[in-house]
Amino acid sequence: MKKALKRIFNIVVDVIVILILIVSILIVTLSLTSKASGVPNILGVAPLSVQSNSMADTFTTGDLLLSEVTNDPGLKYEVGDIVSFPIEIDGETVLNTHRIVEVIVDDSITYYRTQGDNKDTNPVPDEKLQSASTIVAKYTGTKIAGLGNVLSFIRTQLGFFLCVLMPMIILFVYEAIRVVMNIIAYNNEKSLEAAQKTVQTSELTEEQKKKAIEEYLASIEQNKDDNSSVQTPAEDE
Fold first, then answer.
1. Beta bridge pairs of residue 103
2. What is the DSSP string of 7-44?
3. CB of 44 within 8 A of CB of 69?
4. Distance CA 46, CA 40 (A)
5. From edge to edge, which strands make up the β-sheet containing 92-106?
6. Distance of CA 217 to CAs 79, 211, 212, 221, Å?
7. Around 233, how many Cα atoms within 13 Å sit in the side-chain half-sphere?
8. 162-166 long-range CB contacts below 8 Å, 24 or more apart?
9. Which of 28, 55, 149, 225 could pair with 59 as two cysteines, CB 3.0-4.6 Å apart?
């Protein structure tokens, strides 16, 4: 029973390790692609966090939008499409997500007028027109409520340390301890085999051989108990 529980515990820990590694890879990928192109990109999908209520009631602050990365200047958009494009706020370039409300063709060049769905905060369309070359993503219709806040926090230095680095450090220490324990168990097993072989080849009676092996096993258990008793005061402190 104890071995079965230990095996289940180890499997759970291994799964957690794999999940943390996957999250770490995703976060690093998002950060690198965002710095390189201005839009986070995972296999052509841009997970974007809603930072304001300019699109309420379609989106609310904290929603996570799954958008299609669009880097083709030849793409055509339609009225009603929800698109993302860079704007500058307080000297910082951020992504803004609004709906296309008008398509304007001027000298064979297509421009798009955008506006937020929340008419209280966006009573008039955006002043600057967008084009296919400035639009970086198009909303796919999939959103996850609340997950945008989590993603935004994890992408901060503190969030990455608490949610990714610290669990990885703890699990790394656990795995190192598990490796050491497995090595000790392997050495004990080999020592037991050697002792059994020595006893079997010696000129002893069967009763003496059995007693010698029992004494050896008892010494191993005693060593384990001694190690535990030595470690206990340190843990209590």
1. 112
2. HHHHHHHHHHHHHHHHHHHHHHHHHHHHHHHSS--BTT
3. yes
4. 5
5. 45-49, 64-69, 137-144, 82-89, 92-106, 109-115
6. 80, 10, 9, 6
7. 3
8. 163/23, 164/20, 164/23, 164/24, 164/27
9. 55
Residue 89 one-letter amino acid: I
**C-alpha dist (Å) from residue 221 to 23, 55, 148, 190:** 41, 67, 53, 15
- What is the C-alpha separation between 68 and 40, in angstroms, rounded? 11
Rounded CA separation 29/17 (Å): 18
Measured CA to CA, the distance from residue 97 to residue 224 in angstroms comes to 62
Q: Which amino acid is at 221?
A: E
Q: What digits encode the pLDDT tens for the residues 88-124?
A: 888 888 899 999 999 999 888 899 999 999 999 999 9
Over residues 45-79, the pLDDT tens digits come to 999 999 899 999 899 999 999 999 997 888 999 99
* Peptide linkage before 57 cis (omega within 30 of 0): yes
Q: Give one DSSP letter per residue of 168-182, joined into a string.
A: HHHHHHHHHHHHHHH
Number of Cβ within 10 Å of residue 7's Cβ equals 10
User: Both tokens of residue 223?
Assistant: 């060593």
Dist CA 31 CA 43 (whole Å): 14
Transcribe 96-159 into DSSP letters: EEEEEEEEEEETTEEEEEEE-S-TTT-SS--SS-B-TTT--EEEEEEEETTHHHHHHHHTSHHH
